[in-house]
Amino acid sequence: QVLSLPIVVIVHGNQDNNAKATVLWDNAFSEIDRVPFVVAERVPWEKMCDTLNLKFMAEVQTTKGLLKEHYFFLAQKIFNDHSASLEDFQSRSVSWAQFNKEILPGRGFTFWQWFDGVLDLTKRCLKSYWSDRLIIGFISKQYVCKLLSTEPDGTFLLRFSDSEIGGVTIAHVIRGKDGSSQVENIQPFSVKDLSIRSLGDRIRDLGQLRNLYPNTPKDQAFGSHYNKEQTGKD
């Protein structure tokens, strides 16, 4: 006899997300010589970071993995703690419940459901943008405001939506004549939206966007992602 790789039987497509979470946790954290079906209930956060990074790179098929600041944002999200430092999180452990059982505060989904939505969106619509490091992605709305509030009018960046599963949003700064700044977040784009019109073309369409944070002109950053516009009857 031999132990197989983990298998989950589901009866409906809406269980697919939870099944993937179970398989991922089992593959990443079970011991080779374990009693069948026994998996650790808690794992070190550093191990979880490695797992999420490997999963992200494999799913999206990119060589550009997650960065230290991405892990910091993900730790704040999964532990619901915005006061701890990066070093504080490194000594913590994360539970299966925090990963895919407990609903995120103020949301209707778990951490894994949200992360899996980001994976699907990036894999299907944003692979080249991510690989060119044009998307910061894993960053909080509050930190975006801090970054952009001192920047010139029209500076923008891209982040994954906190409120929607599988959405990417554009945050940009508007400067008033009196010098005051306001950071606006555009309604998130989903896979459906980006299959109708690509992210690059949407950025080209939006005249209020000028420079990708910190200071790259948008045509220079996204020019290779623009589609040639059709003219005439087409």
Structure, explained:
The chain has 234 residues and is α+β, with helices and mostly antiparallel strands. It has one domain: SH2 domain (SHC Adaptor Protein). The protein is built from ten helices and seven strands. The chain has helices at residues 16-29, 45-60, 68-79, 86-90, 96-100, 111-131, 141-148, 191-196, 199-205, 218-222, and strands spanning 42-44, 93-95, 155-160, 168-175, 181-185, 211-212, 216-217. The strands form two sheets. It has a five-stranded mixed beta sheet. A hairpin with a 7-residue loop joins strand 3 and strand 4. The mean pLDDT is 87. This is STAT6 protein. Keywords: Activator, Cytoplasm, DNA-binding, Nucleus, Phosphoprotein, SH2 domain, Transcription, Transcription regulation. Belongs to the transcription factor STAT family.
